[in-house]
Amino acid sequence: MRSKSVSWIVSRLKAAKMIFRLSLKRGPLSESPAVFPCGMSRSGTTLVATILDSHPRISMGYELIPPPVASPAVLLQALDQGLDMSGGDFRKCGGALRKAGRRQIGLFLARCQRTGIAVDELRYLFQSLDDEGLRCIMLIRDRLALAWRVVERKRIRERTNLCGFKVGPPIVVKVAKCFPNSYFICIVRDPRDVVASYIERKFGLSPEEICANWNKHLDAVRRFHKKHSSTSLILRYEDLVCSPQQTLERVFAVLPVHMEESVFRFYKSKASVHESRHPNAANLKRDFFTSSIGRWMNELPEELGERIHRLCARGMESLGYA
Q1: Which of 2, 161, 236, 268 is a Cys-bridge partner for 57, taking CB atoms 3.0 to 4.6 Å apart?
Q2: Where residue 272 sits, what CATH number does that domain have?
């Protein structure tokens, strides 16, 4: 009984310590303006991020939220390990770590490289966080803070007004609390094409799971937009690629910077993703194209297309996906 009592006290002390830690961290992470592309995977968020990154006053970080890790020291050690395995080539560092079994950290370092941050800058950032006493990067707030520090380095170097990175609809409310002066460009896509894309990429989710996520994500961005209508926008992928001029005019009507012609030349712009090994690199070097609209009709069985429509009927009909 005594050992159970001691164990219970220790667990309660740990819980109290965590609550105290959270209570100290309720304020914003940054008051600086930020922009966050928001949407379900395979819906066009990377295209939105690339378009924004092409603007002379915006710097973007793409997929940049790190996985939960024990400390900045772990990231430093992994960075050095990856560099050793890749012969000092930062572009290959993340891939080397993934092959060595450190998949999540390898992905994060590869995504840092996509922002255009130099390896010495990244090492300095990790070391600074360690010196500041950050011993755990597990909570979503700490992970957002690290992503922000990375993309801020890019913004300062490029001398731009706005920066940001891609976020998922489930955390959009938390992101808005951490960055209160932020803007959100939420993008949705026909769920039948999303399912086709998931299957092509072998993401390992069933059509039912993908549809459940699509419904959940659409509900999340609609609730968010209802409360933040002046600083957020919901757009369809199909409208972006079919009518880029009108759609981007809507985007920049929300943002605090004027639209520039460079955003229409995103495929040959300053966007750092072009210098990386992003999975969508080939498509991001093409002008707006519409061939991926309705891909499901050639790639999915008719019965599956009808099943997706039944599962997502309410949201599809409201968005015009008949």
Answers
A1: 161
A2: 3.40.50.300
Tell me: do 251 and 273 sit in the same domain. yes
Alpha helices in 206-301 (DSSP H): 207-227, 237-242, 244-254, 281-284, 296-299
Q: Is 252 exposed, middle or buried (0-12, 13-18, 19+ CB in 10 A)?
A: middle
**Among the listed residues 132, 121, 119, 109, the one whose alpha carbon sits nearest the alpha carbon of residue 157:** 121
Average pLDDT over residues 204-212: 97
- 154 CB-contact burial (10 Å; exposed 0-12 / middle 13-18 / buried 19+): buried
**Whether residue 226 is found in the same domain as residue 320:** yes
Those residues whose C-beta lies under 8 Å from the C-beta of residue 37, and which sit 6 or more positions away, are 45, 48, 49, 52, 60, 164, 166, 167, 184, 185, 187
Same structural domain for residues 72 and 38? no
Verify that 41 and 189 share a domain, yes or no.
Answer: yes
Tell me which amino acid residue 287 is: D
Supply the pTM of this predicted model.
Answer: 0.89
Please, which residues have CB within 8 angstroms of residue 55's CB and are 6 or more apart in sequence?
257, 259, 260, 262, 263
Q: What is the band of 5 on the pLDDT scale with cuts at 50, 70, 90?
A: low
Q: Where in the sequence is the domain holding 91, given as residue range(s)?
A: 67-136
Which two three-digit tokens encode residue 186? 């939420």
